Amino acid sequence: MRLNVPKKRIFKVGTPFTRVWHDNPFLTGSLQSLTTLPETKKRKEFLNPFFSKAAIVRVEPSLHRRKLRLFLDTLQQQASSATSTSASPGKEDSSEQQQQGSGVVDFFLGFRCLTADTIMDYCFQQDLNALSEPGFRSETVEAFIAGFDLALVATYFPNFFAVLNGVIFRLSEGVRRKYFAPVYGFQTMQKLAEERLVHLEKNPNCASKTKLPTMFDAMLAPDVAKGQVTPSRHDMIADGCLMIAAGTDTTANVLGTVLWNVTQNPDVEAKLVQELKKGMTDREVVLSSVELEGQGFEYLRAVVKEGLRLAYGVPGTIPRRVPKEGAMLGGRFIPGGTIVSAGIYLQNTDAATFPDPFKFDPQRWLCDAETHAKRDRQMLSFSRGSRACIGINLAYATLHLTVAHLFRRFDIKTTGYTTEHDMEWNDRFVPVPNGRIKGLVKVREE
After folding, report:
1. Which of 330, 332, 346, 331 has its CA nearest to residue 378?
2. Of 349, 350, 355, 259, the residue nearest 307 (C-alpha)
3. Of 63, 72, 126, 239, which is the most exposed, with the fewest CB atoms less than 10 Å away?
4. How far apart are CA 20 and CA 429, in angstroms?
5. Distance, CA of 179 to CA of 167 (rounded, Å)
6. Cα angle 425-184-436, degrees, rounded to a multiple of 5
């Protein structure tokens, strides 16, 4: 039963509404698949410190800002190349030539290379080097993207998917890569997580030599006094797959949503750039996420917040089972055992809370404290309560850093390179657009 039910009752901490898991064979055993609060709490005890705000800030200089600089440097090269090409004599500036020119960037891929490199390095101390691939065409990231094409099949037809996956697993890697890209994408995530776990099992003391212990380091060294027990290897690998999948696509999708909407709205872009120029007088200097979360960057944060609202995270149902005694929801009694849902799409586009809900309007977040709190409670992009996304601090740091420095340094034209049809999306567990957001990149004038 799908109801626009009060999420505070269903998703609050300690809720009696239990999770319903769909037996995705790659994620079963991960934090996402745990259905009871006690087992969820035990797993989060390992992961929460790793994703805390303090942990993110500590590693940011050597991770987030380093990855961001690689991303920005690549865009700078594209912009410089486009400028020199357009200045060459005898060149006609046709639309077709522009789209084929080196100044046009596939941001769909670029954002995913940025987020994939960040999450892999952060969680596993293993760099994909996706940002170094020409045109951001990383084979591994392309495999990740293809994997989401089967996410809905795994979600709603888990038994069929398990059988299909078992058959495909028996094929050679070359055949899987060529003919079964979606399954191969999931298996690539699984392989990367397993390789890192095996390495740490064989080298238990290597964490002290790295900039930050990995998520597996904590799991392999449980605190016995707290009653912690190391999860099985299968479950740890599943958690690794979860972190790759959740940390790559959803954040990249928000960045694409922001880029499209800002570049399609001159007033929004002008306000954002004006604020960034005032707060970032030297466009070459990379500020910290802490600085961007302080005074002087209120409109930036409103732009990111609105991007999160309209990117939807996981737009489909978030199923929960009604407790055995039943519950009153929306003025109706729902029997115990019934599966209900309060999806992110429904919550984030509630017209009563967000007037003109499908309009990208950062100004709606620059309001009085009471209204802001009401809208923040309504927005479900990171879920809520005991099941809330543990990567929220990582996501916000990546979003604030990327949006701020991208628009401070570059003037990006998406009109003529991306269409509204390209940006319309389909539900593949995460939103997957019809096309890819692309844009012509130029260095922004001071």
Report:
1. 346
2. 259
3. 126
4. 15
5. 13
6. 25
Domains and CATH numbers, the chain: 32-83+101-313+388-443 (1.10.630.10)
Q: Output the pTM of the full model.
A: 0.89
> What distance in Å separates the CA atoms of residue 198 and residue 233, rounded to the nearest whole number?
9
Q: What is the pLDDT of residues 5-58, one digit of tens each?
A: 455 677 777 788 888 877 777 888 999 888 888 888 889 888 888 899 999 999
Q: What is the pLDDT of residue 297?
A: 98
For the record, the structure tokens of 198 come out as: 């095996």
3-state helix, strand, coil in the chain (%, to 5): 60, 10, 35
The encoded tokens of residue 262 equal 């800002």
Query: Which residue carries 């996402």 as its tokens?
Result: 32
d(CA 374, CA 392) in angstroms, rounded, equals: 19
Please classify residue 258 by burial: count the beta carbons closer than 10 Å to its beta carbon, then call 0-12 exposed, 13-18 middle and 19+ buried.
buried
How far apart are alpha carbons 370 and 361 in whole angstroms? Answer: 18
- What stretch of H or E contains 328? strand 327-329
**For residue 346, what are its two tokens?**
């429904």
- Could you tell me which of 325, 326, 302 has the C-alpha nearest to residue 379? 302
389 is an annotated ligand-binding site residue: yes
CA distance 330 to 309: 23
What is the phi/psi pair of residue 48, to 5°?
Answer: -55, -45
- CA–CA dist 362, 302 (Å, integer): 5
Paired strand residues for 413: 440
